[in-house]
Amino acid sequence: MTDMQPAASNLDLAVAQVDELCAKVGLQQAGLPVAAGKHAVPVGTTLWTSSYARLVLWPCGASDAAGVIAAAREGQGWFDEMLVSSEAQSRGPIDGYLVLALPAAPAADASEDVRRLELSSQVCRKHLIWPAGEADTEEAAGTWLRVADVTVVGLPETMPSSGGELVWPKIDSEAQAVWDDLAALGLSATLIQDETA
What we know:
Blueprint: H1 8-24, E1 28-30, E2 46-49, E3 53-59, H2 65-90, E4 95-101, H3 111-119, E5 125-131, E6 144-145, H4 173-185, H5 187-196
Parallel strand pairs: 3-4, 4-5
Antiparallel strand pairs: 1-2, 2-3, 5-6
């Protein structure tokens, strides 16, 4: 495992990107709790909180499978202690999101491990982000990739506005015939009619 923490200025950019999205869903940056646990918190770890969720940006020193999994275990262990304490104080469930900030895109041979890690909901949801590399598009230059994929903050940029009127969907003639039968005959008679047809 190589230990190449994301550069502080680059990590600051990740924090800024996550912070912008967190603000849109009511998560606010907070100080890290003083923990007497056994888990070491990497420099640059950042916490966002709300009444319903906690999100932690956890710097990871490696992009290979073993390093990412080790960082996820350490972050998940620390986060578990913090979530248990938060839930005890709030007397209700708190959703947890652990965002691992990798120094570079995951190694090619780590894709299966990364997928399994991100699908695991043990303790909290886990997401991986990394800075855009030279092979990425010009639009991505200077940004962190996959930040908008973090489930609690991944909202579309614009929300469709709801109109004042109800609009019925347009349906084809066959569907309209079934709808008319339902209205005229009722569910049971329509089902019997369809079975005999």
